[in-house]
Q: What sequence folds into this?
């Protein structure tokens, strides 16, 4: 009986000892002297929004330099997209209307990931129904890939049974400040009011 | 007055029929689309299907004079990525249930619109169901990219 109690006591000591050790080691590597140095975690530190070389829907060759000096909103999609892309373009149009003259102080970009079908003419026809300030961008397979890489955008061409194809693509609208630094996203599930607030703060950021 | 009343009644009935196409067990309501330009490669069709019968039914295809073809698609969002896929078996409408085709979900893709669709006009569309057969509806054209029809809930 006594031996049993002694064993249990030693067991308890072992458990407590382990806890003390685990907690101190944990503190050392998370908050203590062995922890990683704190890094900037604001959106501006994220490498989203790099150089690109594309053609706008009026047929003009453009790069990111053509859109400096104003904050911008950018999203990636394609024109054989009847549901989600029009919803985002419709949201953009509604935001442009709500901002009024302030909307002219932003660039509004729609980049097609469908390099084969989306010519500048196709984009022009597709964008006709939305605010004319939205600029459509397209390019060769390599140029579209480079632009998508610059924005960390995922896209993939998916073959369909009928011989055609569709495109999978990231859904977010990216916000860049006037220096071209990443400043956040608008999610298409967010409310109009939240999106509007994000754009107003983007316009006042320096 | 005696001749006016039946006329009004018939007119009201015709209007109700246009707004809510009915083929015995399948009722279609909230049929709408969004404005597109004349050279837009695609347009969309949204509908609410109600099966008041006791047998399952299925929307298998659709056609409209306003587009080269109509496809039935599902739209999914997985980890921030939008994926659209055709639904080769169409949309199942179980008995007693209501199925909504709306933004961000299952929808009709009008492939190759034959003309511009302007806000305020109506586009005729024929739906083919496995049991209910043909059902004719009119899509009301709403603003480009809008998230819901102007008369939602009516």
A:
């Amino acid at each position: 009986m006594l031996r049993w109690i002694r064993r249990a006591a030693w067991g308890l000591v072992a458990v407590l000892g382990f806890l003390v050790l685990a907690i101190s080691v944990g503190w050392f590597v998370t908050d203590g002297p062995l922890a990683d140095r704190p890094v900037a975690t604001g959106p501006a530190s994220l490498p989203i929004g790099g150089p690109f070389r594309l053609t706008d829907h009026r047929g003009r060759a453009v790069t990111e330099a053509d859109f400096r000096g104003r904050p911008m909103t950018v999203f990636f999609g394609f024109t054989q997209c009847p549901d989600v892309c029009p919803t985002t373009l419709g949201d953009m149009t509604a935001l442009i209307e709500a901002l009024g003259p302030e909307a002219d102080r932003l660039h509004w970009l729609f980049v097609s990931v469908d390099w084969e079908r989306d010519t500048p003419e196709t984009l022009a026809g597709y964008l006709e129904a939305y605010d004319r300030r939205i600029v459509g961008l397209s390019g060769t397979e390599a140029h579209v890939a480079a632009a998508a890489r610059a924005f960390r955008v995922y896209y993939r061409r998916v073959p369909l049974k009928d011989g055609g194809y569709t495109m999978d693509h990231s859904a977010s609208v990216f916000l860049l400040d006037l220096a071209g630094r990443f400043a956040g996203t608008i999610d298409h599930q967010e409310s109009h009011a939240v999106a509007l607030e994000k754009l107003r703060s983007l316009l006042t950021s320096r | 007055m005696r001749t006016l009343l039946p006329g009004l009644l018939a007119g009201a009935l015709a209007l109700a029929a246009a707004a809510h196409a009915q083929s015995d067990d399948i009722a279609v309501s909230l049929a709408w689309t969004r404005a597109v330009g004349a050279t837009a490669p695609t347009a969309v069709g949204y509908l609410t299907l109600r099966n008041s019968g006791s047998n399952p039914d299925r929307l298998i295809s659709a056609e409209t004079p306003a587009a080269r073809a109509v496809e039935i698609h599902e739209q999914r969002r997985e980890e921030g990525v939008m994926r659209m896929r055709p639904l080769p078996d169409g949309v199942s409408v179980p008995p007693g249930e209501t199925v909504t085709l709306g933004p961000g979900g299952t929808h009709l893709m009008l492939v190759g619109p034959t003309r511009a669709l302007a806000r305020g006009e109506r586009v005729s569309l024929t739906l083919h169901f496995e049991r209910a057969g043909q059902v004719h509806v009119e899509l009301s054209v709403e603003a480009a990219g809008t998230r819901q029809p102007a008369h939602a809930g009516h």
Chain A touches chain B through 38 residues (CB under 8 Å). The beta strands of chain A are 53-56, 61-63, 72-77, 107-112, 134-138, 155-159, 165-170, 173-176, 182-186.
